[in-house]
Hints:
This protein has one helix at about 140-155, and strands at about 15-25, 30, 35-40, 50-55, 65, 70-75, 80-90, 95-105, 115-130. By secondary structure, it is mainly β. The protein has a single domain (about 15-155), classed as Immunoglobulins (Immunoglobulin-like, Sandwich), CATH 2.60.40.10.
Amino acid sequence: xxxxxxxxxxERKPELEIVSSYTEPANVSAGDHVxxxxxxxxxxxxxxxxxSVRVTGEADVPFDFAVKSDHxxxxxxxxxxxxxxxxxxxxxxxKKIYPLGLExxxxxxxxxxxxxxxxxxxxxxVEVTSSSSSIPGFECLFILIALSxxxxxxxxxx
Length: 158
């Protein structure tokens, strides 16, 4: 048999994925100031330079972004980096899970002559666990009034 070998040239490029995200506070309520941590990993075959994470489609969510983009620096292959974004939840935000669009951008490894810009559109979920229809302290006040009324009514019976 005749053996032939074919050289396959695989184009090296960075590939960025969101590996995790969490919010502070963990339970997001209407009216809260929230810090969003997004961890990005380079799962590609080349270093990603000037990595940045930016919010997209903020018109679709009840969040007002104070910090809508962050730079994660350069990420070697398999390396992770964190981006920190900040937003205020609208006071009348409904209690539900909101899809939040994120665009991750980077430049290829310039040392390898790759100066292309790569963009990756991702989405994470941010859950608003309670709406502000209940005024903080209002429940306590209501319980106090109910207890004192019960106490007053009991005293009158004696």
